[in-house]
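**User:** Hello, beginner here. Are you able to go through the protein record under this note? It all follows right here:
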Amino acid sequence: MNSKILPEIVLASNNPGKIREFSAVMEPLGIRIIPQGDLNIPAAPEPFGTFIENALAKARQACLASGKPSLADDSGICVQALMDAPGIYSARYAGEHANDASNNQKLITALQGIEQRAARYVCALVLLRHPNDPEPIIACADWHGEVIDTPRGHHGFGYDPYFWLPTLGKTAAELDPDLKNQISHRALALKILLPQIKAYTVQ
């Protein structure tokens, strides 16, 4: 019985930005990321009120459908002045068929006249090693910043052009992708998750 990194993991997402970010971190470790769309697995419903519950639902559907270890991310931006909205609704803040532009426009409109712009990106990761895994691996992390009115930068996706990082003097969209993959909410959650993946024993 040897300990080794899981050779491949199904990613319960069809988001190109997330696929890029996870692949950039996992592939150097010898972990192949398989987007669920490559296996014709549809997007899972996200009916729950927390990031962790929704991530678990997505990971479970991908794992049941594929029979392979499956990783799901549920993430979003929480704005203090808006009582943590958009929160779990970040991807569909402007409606079921929203895109990045409409979501960002709704957020900026909601913050008009509000000086307090503190916000945080939240990422919850859930890994199911097999469909009957009784103890999913869970990792959560936050990335703190502020929301600005004018977009800056062309990297990233989602709310990145409006997510200002005071300590760096840049938005998330202005960061070099390699740097973002080291300091973002997703990167921080992965740093918690990866040691547990590495410790998993494949028989």
User: Anything to note?
Assistant: The chain has a mean pLDDT of 93. DSSP finds five helices and ten strands in the chain. The radius of gyration is 17 Å. Residues 51-66 form the longest helix (16 residues).
